[in-house]
Design a protein that fits this description.
It is built from eight helices and nine strands. It has 252 residues and is α/β, with parallel strands linked by helices. It has a single domain, classed as Phosphatidylinositol (PI) phosphodiesterase (TIM Barrel, Alpha-Beta Barrel). β6, α6 and β7 form a beta-alpha-beta unit. The longest helix is centred in the middle third of the chain and has 11 residues. The protein starts with 11 loop residues before the first strand and ends in an 8-residue tail after the last strand. The structure holds SN-glycerol-3-phosphate and magnesium ion.
């Protein structure tokens, strides 16, 4: 059993950073609100100074939290400059006074396990940080520990992490994230990477490549699809899943 065996239909809808339309992105509330509205949920993983895997899209804290208003947090507000305990002081919902604490990878996975909801764990590219060497191991081991190997697609723009993950856990489903342009000899490259999915920016959707990959058993997923028109186009080109910010508008 692998990630793709969880679904018994084509044309899947993924919640991009949880239900980030009704809630603040990558928070437990966004994850709770996505249940029943999508086929799987995508979120991003980074690391605190003391090595706790936490859910955050950016390298820095100020866009999505009140870090710029609290004592003890200073520009450039790098995530990896703060210990997990300090990060718990933050409200990750800028739009509300109701505090949303930064979720850990472990609590997020356990929540989705309890809901029987498949996930896409995206490891941010940490090559400029000390976590580059341990990120894949920590994330993959946490997925295993939470009994989510068969319900997880692990993705990254850093394709070295995907190679590493397959070494640690050959069973895990991996996906290569790509933007701007396709790698040379795309199919050959992805086969060498041993990924089962190719997760691309919508600006580089290409019918010929999508079909060629599909014929070889590699699914294409596309981000970020936020209108019916884009949705129809993506699925007509043979895309398997789309990531969206607007779950309410997308048919399940
Ligand atoms: O995994 C799809 C998408 O989340 C990749 O881009 O920047 O939103 O993490 P980003
Ligand atoms: Mg992401």
């Amino acid at each position: 059993m692998s990630f793709w065996d969880n679904f018994h239909k084509d044309h899947l809808i993924a919640a991009h950073r949880g239900d980030r339309y009704t809630s603040a992105e990558n928070t437990m509330e966004a994850f709770e609100n996505s249940i029943g509205k999508c086929d799987f949920v995508e979120f991003d993983v980074g690391f605190s100074k003391d090595g706790v895997a936490v859910i955050l899209h950016d390298d820095t804290l100020e866009r999505t939290s009140d870090a710029d208003k609290l004592n003890g947090f200073y520009p450039p507000y790098n995530l990896y400059d703060y210990n997990y305990k300090q990060l718990l002081e933050l409200n990750m919902d800028k739009r509300s006074t109701k505090k949303q604490q930064i979720p850990t990878l472990k609590e997020t996975l356990l929540f989705f396990r309890s809901q029987n909801m498949p996930v896409n764990v995206e490891i941010k590219d940490l090559k400029k940080t000390k976590f580059d060497k341990i990120a894949t191991k920590v994330v993959t081991e946490t997925i295993k520990e939470c009994d989510m190997i068969e319900m997880t697609m692990l993705s990254s723009f850093n394709h070295n992490y995907l190679r590493e993950a397959k070494k640690i856990s050959p069973q895990i489903t991996t996906a290569a994230l790509q933007e701007k342009k396709h790698p040379k000899e795309c199919l050959k490259y992805l086969k060498e990477l041993n990924v089962s999915s190719y997760n691309i920016d919508k600006t580089i959707m290409d019918k010929k490549i999508i079909q060629e990959l599909k014929n070889e058993g590699i699914y294409t997923c596309v981000y970020t699809i936020n209108s019916q028109k884009e949705l129809k186009k993506a699925f007509s080109l043979g895309v398997e899943a789309v990531f969206t910010d607007y779950l309410e508008d997308m048919p399940l």
